[in-house]
Predict the structure.
Amino acid sequence: QLNKTLEARVEERTRELRDTQAQLVQSEKMRSLGQLVAGVAHELNNPIGFVHANLQLLAGFIERMVQAQIEGGDVEKPREAIGKLLLRSREGTERVKKVVQDLRTFSRMDQAELADADLNAELRRTLGLMEPRFKDGIRIQAELGELPAVRCYPAQLNQVFMNLLMNACDAVGAGGTLSVRTRTTPGGVALDFADDGP
């Protein structure tokens, strides 16, 4: 009877420990996600604000051009300004489009499925999404060698890459250096992450 009771208690404690571990993993994911979302929001806000300001300027230049046409004045200057504003606005929307595309790919829902992945592309995507965290003078040294496609869980690896890079950012503070290196090895591929933090 004592044995059965003890086994039941051990089983219950083991289950509690598993639940606690799952909660810790989830809270770490949420912390990382929160930091990522804050960075992405900032990264989207800049080009959107820029495009918004350009639209206000466009309205003014269009008004001037119409006025110049009515009065027979010079329409070339407002036309040039409109062309430049449209070009810059397009660059801003392209930036937004790229960030959203990277985010969608990064957060894809195929975590439970094995897939052939280009790890260099996955790393570039993660580095791109983390760009706002590197604005404090943190330098990135990336040496991405030729890699074959690797059979893995890409979304889970992206989570690992992001956690390593976020931890490195916290460790180095402003003005530190993070290095990422990928290479082939006799047994497959190697990815090296390093920082010059304490």
User: Anything to note?
Assistant: The radius of gyration is 25 Å. The first strand starts at residue 115 and ends at 117.
